[in-house]
């Protein structure tokens, strides 16, 4: 899962991104991720893994990971295409979801590019850049569709949809706010529109506001706006995240409980990303390693197997499956089998979050 961090200058992006890279997963564990300076890889926190590690006395634990891309530099005028602007928009095209950091803290020592703190104006500024870029793309699509319509009348439906998208964009609205049927949604997905990408607004508040963020009017404004776009809101204090990233797991828990928080802002962000993108994890366990794997909700057993290895998907026979809770109640895989809690699932099985699976396959 790839998330791209955007936001105006001086809102706390670098502070958050540095916290992410410091808290970051050991890159040796994630050989498939390309680690570049603008990429931070963090593991998805999952308490079930440690329970399984103890049960199997496994050598190592491999949580699943999320990649954060620092897309700093997106400013007013980016869509006009001057040099770097286009590059940033191109970077956004490559991520699955946008994390928009919005400043909700006052600090006279930190200047705001527009002279005063105003989260809704910030949101509009960035969203308009994405909207302008989408408009250009849609205009080109419309021209092409009109030409092709002469030979192929079946394209009328698509043209109507494109016109509707154009109208929405011209009103200054993001496409993710548009009501679409399932078919339309599939079509729009292919256009790779920036304003259609799922978005999480990160409201960056001051240390004092973190515990009672609802008292912060700016956070309330961001929430109101997010509702109109089916977006998620996560409240963090980037400064505190930066402090947390220096701590080990035990110190982190202690620090959070002293603050009266149940999880760090980064963990909240990761979970919001999971929810927004419809993701979940299944688990594999053995003496060598315990591991979590990310799949989309609704994936069937062979697709899940394919996450591990393409051969597993091609030669899929069945999935020996037990839910994490059943396995823990039974105490061991052998005991779970004895109690009949381990099921043999076939090709049509829809994998559930927390399933512990052993795949049987032909090579
Ligand atoms: P960027 O330009 O968006 O990357 O912003 P930075 O992360 O560089 O932050 C700009 C300034 O705001 C720095 O001086 C940070 O220390 C400060 N800052 C960032 N997050 C917070 C916060 O949560 N509270 C306060 N008071 N200051 C912050």
Automatic annotation (TrEMBL):
Q: Which residues cross the membrane?
A: none
Keyword terms of this UniProt record? ATP-binding, Magnesium, Metal-binding, Nucleotide-binding
Example of a GO MF term: ATP hydrolysis activity
Question: Which Pfam families did the record assign?
Answer: MMR_HSR1, YchF-GTPase_C
Q: Where does ATP bind?
A: 10-15
Task: Give the PROSITE patterns listed for this entry.
Answer: G_OBG, TGS
Q: What is this protein called?
A: Ribosome-binding ATPase YchF
Q: Gene encoding it?
A: ychF
């Amino acid at each position: 899962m790839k998330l791209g961090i955007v936001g105006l200058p001086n809102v706390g992006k670098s502070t958050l991104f540095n916290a992410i890279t410091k808290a970051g997963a050991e890159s040796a564990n994630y050989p498939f991720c390309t680690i570049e300076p603008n990429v931070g890889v963090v593991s998805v926190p999952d308490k079930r893994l440690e329970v399984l590690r103890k049960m199997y006395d496994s050598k190592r634990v491999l949580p699943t990971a999320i990649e954060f891309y620092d897309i700093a530099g997106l400013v007013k005028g980016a869509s006009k295409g001057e040099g770097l602007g286009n590059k940033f928009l191109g970077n956004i095209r490559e991520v699955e979801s946008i994390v928009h950091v919005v400043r909700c803290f006052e600090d006279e020592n930190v200047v705001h590019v527009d002279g005063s703190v105003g989260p809704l104006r910030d949101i509009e500024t960035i969203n308009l850049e994405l909207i302008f870029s989408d408009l250009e793309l849609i205009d080109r699509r419309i021209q092409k569709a009109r030409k092709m319509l002469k030979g192929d009348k079946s394209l009328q439906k698509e043209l109507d949809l494109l016109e509707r998208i154009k109208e929405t964009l011209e009103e200054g609205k993001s496409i993710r706010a548009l009501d679409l049927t399932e078919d339309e949604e599939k079509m729009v997905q292919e256009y790779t529109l920036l304003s259609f990408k799922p978005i999480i607004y990160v409201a960056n508040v001051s240390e004092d506001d973190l515990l009672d963020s609802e008292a912060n009017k700016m956070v309330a404004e961001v929430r109101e706006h997010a509702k109109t776009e089916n977006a998620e809101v996560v409240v963090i204090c980037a400064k505190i995240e930066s402090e947390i990233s220096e701590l080990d797991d035990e110190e982190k828990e202690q620090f959070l409980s002293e603050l009266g928080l149940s999880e760090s802002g980064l963990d909240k962000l990761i979970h919001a990303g999971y929810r927004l993108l419809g993701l979940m994890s299944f688990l594999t366990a053995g003496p060598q390693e315990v591991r979590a794997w990310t799949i989309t909700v609704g994936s069937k057993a062979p697709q899940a197997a394919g996450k591990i290895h393409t051969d597993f998907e091609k030669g899929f026979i069945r999935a020996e499956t037990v839910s994490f809770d059943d396995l823990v109640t039974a105490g061991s895989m052998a005991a779970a089998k004895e109690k009949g809690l381990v099921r043999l699932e076939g090709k049509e099985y829809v994998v559930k979050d927390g399933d512990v699976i052993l795949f049987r396959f032909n090579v």
